[in-house]
Amino acid sequence: MRKIYVAALVAVLGLIIIFLGRTPPANSHSAPPIVTNQNPAMAAIPDVPGTIDGAKNPELIPDHVAYSAIFRMLSNRHTKDEIDRVRAYVKQMGLGKQNCRQCPPGFGTADSDVDAFLSAAEEFHQRVQIIDKQALEINDRTSVNPSAEVIAQLRGLQRAKEATAKDVAASLPARLTPGAFQLVRQHINEYVKQRIKLVPPMIAADK
């Protein structure tokens, strides 16, 4: 009989995202590294068969996974230090007015773009935390041998999270100036995806 580890259930039978929270290449003055809500220790986990490493194949990382990672990293920040750090991160992406002497002409967007992008991240957090809570509640009352009904529920929640990321990402062109949106797309493709690993669910079979 199949045995599905609890870790796979926490991942909602989806893909475990490992996002290394380092600042992007500086477009202006350097800023302190951002602290993510992902577990840095996961980066040391050996790759299992089927792992997709964004550092090697960024084109295989779906957009919604990359947006989920950066939205989670930037959202739910409350202290002044946390807020300053996430704003510094977004400014290093090129959004907002830039105070650098070596920036190309026209580089940087309105400061309102910083607020708009962080607002999108916060909307993602507000919507997806409800789904996360449902998944954890299912996990708490589920044994290591979940029924087909439980697995279907978890997969449905995973699809809901993916749909939320896609929905919020699709709203960005209307929230941001055209230049800011292009900078976000560039950051997603050239930086975020390269720092993500997608690991298949931890599923084993008893013989």
What does this structure look like?
This protein is mainly alpha-helical. The protein has one domain (2-205). The protein is 49% helix and 8% strand. It has a 3-stranded antiparallel beta sheet, covered by helices on one side. Helix 3 (80-92) crosses helix 4 and helix 4 packs antiparallel against helix 5. The longest helix is centred in the middle third of the chain and has 30 residues, at 111-140.
Order of helices and strands: EHEEHHHHHHEE
Taking the sheet with the most strands, its summary is: 3 strands, antiparallel
In DSSP terms, counting alpha (H) and pi (I) runs of 4 or more, how many helices?
Answer: 7
Number-wise, the strands total: 5
Question: In angstroms, what separates the terminal alpha carbons?
Answer: 7 Å
